[in-house]
């Protein structure tokens, strides 16, 4: 479990505005993610990050007050990348199969970006006191995008199915991708094929206009006579 740090840390000092500044912060975040994956939270230092990124420690501190701020920025970049994949996979101008491929390939690519760091981010690294609102915002935005994705790909589904369908798809795909990352299987063509089959099968299956209600307990035909 990640440790919670109850203080106002984890925030960037300033956001990069120019291309050169964005290149610097991207290099710092890449270096932080790489070191985090190789050395873990305890082995991550701002000096190591600056050296690996090829920038001065002073330049690092222009943007990030401490290593906690660096890690929260790495985590936020991951959130942004996931949301961008979901937006692309909801493009109504693409065919359904193209959207399915965009979703699967995009999720594999996002989680293949420093997969060891992703594990540390989820399981080991502390989080600043300001990081929970960012996580909450991501969770809400992610649910909304999965709902949109489901509606675009299953436009004839009933209202109740649309409300639940995105949630089911999110849980299935996220769980499969995260487990593949832990098992170092993200580059496997078999994994990609299975994920395509999973998503396409779920989105393309026929659904009744009104989902059947579960029978009430004791109302099934021969329930009282059933063995066991």
From TrEMBL:
One of its GO terms (molecular function) is DNA-binding transcription factor activity. InterPro entries: Homeodomain-like_sf, HTH-type_TetR-like_transc_reg, HTH_TetR, TetR_C_15. PROSITE patterns: HTH_TETR_2. Residues 22-82 form the HTH tetR-type domain. Gene3D superfamilies: Tetracycline Repressor, domain 2. Keywords: DNA-binding, Transcription, Transcription regulation. Pfam families: TetR_C_15, TetR_N. Residues 1-21, 207-228 are annotated as: Disordered. Residues 45-64 bind DNA. This is TetR family transcriptional regulator. It comes from Burkholderia paludis.
């Amino acid at each position: 479990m990640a440790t919670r740090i109850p203080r106002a840390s984890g925030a960037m000092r300033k956001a990069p505005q120019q291309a050169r500044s964005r290149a610097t912060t991207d290099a710092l975040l890449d270096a932080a993610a790489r070191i985090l994956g190789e050395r873990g939270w305890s082995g991550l230092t701002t000096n190591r990050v600056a050296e690996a990124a090829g920038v001065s420690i002073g330049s690092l501190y222009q943007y990030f007050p401490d290593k906690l701020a660096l890690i929260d920025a790495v985590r936020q970049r991951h959130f942004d990348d996931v949301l961008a994949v979901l937006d692309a996979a909801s493009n109504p101008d693409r065919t359904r199969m193209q959207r399915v491929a965009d979703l699967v390939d995009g999720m594999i690519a996002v989680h293949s970006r420093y997969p060891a760091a992703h594990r540390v981010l989820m399981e080991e690294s502390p989080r600043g006191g300001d990081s929970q609102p960012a996580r909450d915002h991501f969770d809400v935005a992610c649910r909304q995008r999965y709902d949109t994705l489901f509606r675009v790909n299953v436009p004839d589904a009933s209202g109740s199915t649309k409300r639940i369908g995105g949630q089911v798809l999110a849980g299935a795909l996220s769980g499969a991708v995260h487990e593949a990352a832990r098992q170092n299987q993200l580059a496997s063509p078999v994994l990609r094929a299975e994920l395509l089959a999973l998503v396409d099968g779920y989105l393309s299956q026929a659904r009744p206009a009104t989902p059947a209600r579960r029978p009430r307990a004791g109302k099934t035909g021969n329930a009282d006579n059933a063995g066991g």
